[in-house]
Amino acid sequence: MWLDPTARPGLARCSAPTKATAAQVAALRALPDPVEPVTPHLACELAAGHQDDHAALAVASHGGDQWWWLRWDRRRRDVVQIDPCEATEHAAPDPEYCLFPAGHPGSHSFNLQPGPNRKVDDEPPPTQPHWALRGPRM
Fold it and tell me: Which pTM was predicted?
């Protein structure tokens, strides 16, 4: 995966929406000890401008020890277990950890603006105009 050089790295998230299939939702809901309920409506959490697969955390199971991601593009969608990225922002008073899958492209989660709130019902994530994710104009 590569970042689009015209994107503003370090600011916006991709936020492309998707919906997990019924079979994927059932499989995710069957995982033991989830941290929060599974919702079929997800949005890409990676930095805006990435090319290739989108990725959204579907559920953390086994008390948070296993992170399950939905990865998708125009032709396919897969549920995969990927450990989180090991990057840490040490400059913050309380170190922040990257909440993206290991090997993700682009900026770490702690460098991006917050994404849409995760929902635990069957409503799609809130949509924002693309310009609202870029921050204030200079």
Answer: 0.74
